[in-house]
């Protein structure tokens, strides 16, 4: 049977990535106690009718202020919600059947009464059929990790967390068939006994397979395509045509379009994936600089299976991370690190202690006991970076000091690490954040254009010229082309390679005003890169990170820009045929790909 408004397995295991919690609706504020005192101390003269009128209105105001104060101070807040006392708006409990679903960073959220979790394919088929007949929204949402909340819809969502089985494994051909709700890490764990694994991985492992494919996610490696290229067939549940199966041989045009279909064509129910032999990798981390990178860039791309650069703004430091299979003859390299983990992080700890003196140490430690010396010594570098940035996140000089501490951390963390691909290729992305990632052509595998490094140089100059408080890292990765026409890395030329560059601003605080200021600064940062760099490098945003503009002119410009790169007409034609009532759509899809001329 179908279960609604119930989260199990996937959603429970990733609660730190995606929250499903109750939040109250917003009601307006009332005057503060100070206004009561101001109003009640006024003492008008009773000698005239105008004075009487004034006393009447003062009485009304005092009554209103008293009610507001009573509501304000009597409202029950939990200990961890005391900061809400300073907010402009008041919160009250939600109805039991209304839930708030938000993405990992808390930057996008919706409230819905309709959250479906079918337990069988038959349940899913019936849900899609009934919803289509009723024209009820059931937007497919995976693990809810996308920074832009592309899977969220207030009117209703369907999540396949309970459809998470490995259905078939062909060990010889290295092919697996799975239900689309299975998480990446769960899949990898279940097929490792067969000696196989996925070809590549994104930074984290908590995505559902259906979701990670639909948004065109990627790992890194100039010879390795985005993850949608691993799909060799799919079972889709469509509103208009029911259950259909697609492959390279069966309706190839729709198959390639639907592989990166953004959840707008059908609910992906099952996926057949081409896997590879499971291998141990050796990861090498080294601190370099732009000059050295330019000399060795082509060699680094061609000789390493996986490679990425982490640039640190306002410094010349570049962290180079390469990963390759362990040599069958030489084995893993023998390496003794020069510094311990504690020594590597010590500069950041010292900076934090210095900053505590500047930023009222007693007050900060009183609010959060983990800010004392013992608590700080237990934090990872990314956790400590959040603590540092939270002290003054938009102060450029402060951010530069944090970046310099990060460069020192990486210098003292140089060395090797050996492990299985799913262990090694992950990356600690840090805490809650705003992120924008773009993809652009970088020549061919045999002849890189070097445009990827030119882009970074211009980006760093832009940051310094505009004095943007840009934290580290600026992450640069590569992929081979995708044959899915809706992929940002789509190309018909087999040898083409693409560079992916991500910029970031962390949200290291839960203070609403501070988060709003960081958000505004991030979008200013993003706008500068968009207006000065994107068109010149033919750069387009990752589908899970594209943000819809609020202004009509900006939205119209974005729509026209997308039409130049992607087959929007073909995509919309397929949407009309497969989902004529748009039950799988949401606000993002409707605005990016309008099915009429109205914006």
TrEMBL record:
Q: Does the keyword Oxidoreductase apply?
A: yes
Q: Its annotated pathway?
A: Cofactor biosynthesis; L-ascorbate biosynthesis
Q: Domain FAD-binding PCMH-type, which positions?
A: 107-278
Q: Name one GO cellular component term.
A: membrane
- The name of this protein is FAD-binding PCMH-type domain-containing protein
Question: Which Pfam families does the entry mention?
Answer: ALO, FAD_binding_4
List where Low complexity composition bias occurs.
31-50
Looking up PANTHER family in the UniProt record yields: D-ARABINONO-1,4-LACTONE OXIDASE (PTHR43762:SF1), L-GULONOLACTONE OXIDASE (PTHR43762)
